[in-house]
Amino acid sequence: MRCPFCAHDDSQVKDSRPTEDNTSIRRRRQCSSCGARFTTFERVQLREITVVKSDDAREPFDRAKIEQSVTLACRKRGIEREKIDQLVSGVQRQVETLGESEVPSREIGEMVMEGLRQLDSVAYIRFASVYRAFNEARDFEAFAGTVRDVAGQGATKGAAKDGDNG
After folding, report:
1. Residue that wins the pLDDT comparison between 151 and 103
2. Is the pTM of this model over 0.90?
3. Distance of CA 126 to CAs 25, 64, 153, Å?
4. When comparing pLDDT for 137 and 8, which is higher?
5. Is there a contact between 77 and 122 (Cβ–Cβ < 8 Å)?
6. pLDDT (tens digit, 9 = 90+) per residue, 26-58?
7. Cβ count near 102 (within 10 Å)
8. Which residues contact 23 (CB under 8 A, 6 or more apart)?
9. Is 50 exceeded by the pLDDT of residue 10?
10. Is 156 helix (H, G, I), strand (E, B) or coil?
11. Quick one: three-class SS letters along 88-154?
């Protein structure tokens, strides 16, 4: 494993343990050249998955893109890193268990939205504003109204689905 600090190709594993949700292995490593310590995660990849974008372009599934988007939506919300990792791992698991080699980006976006809806309403609205390409303030207002409606109804799954259609 290449050291992120000095780019040396050799590192030693100092500690290995499964993550809390048992979807990956966390390894603490130490660079044999500069001595720096860093963490890596090892995950099972069931198959190569291609994401089909809205313009019909295709690209390999990239967990890091989902992680970056979710992290941005959750910024300054006081959400634990572990919760974000669990959400991203859950989405990745859902994508992998679909059994398809090609998955539309829209489907992945909806999975992320559902996870954020359950995690934090502000992060949910932030992600939706980019994902659904809100153009005007009234788009935010209308969407936020559906979030309030869902929260007011005890966030039942049926109400959440009705609120997601807007």
Report:
1. 103
2. no
3. 31, 18, 21
4. 8
5. yes
6. 999 999 999 999 999 887 766 789 999 989 999
7. 11
8. 43, 44, 89, 92, 93
9. yes
10. coil
11. HHHHHHHHHHCCCCEEEHHHHHHHHHHHHHHHCHHHHHHHHHHHCCCCCHHHHHHHHHHHHHHHHCC
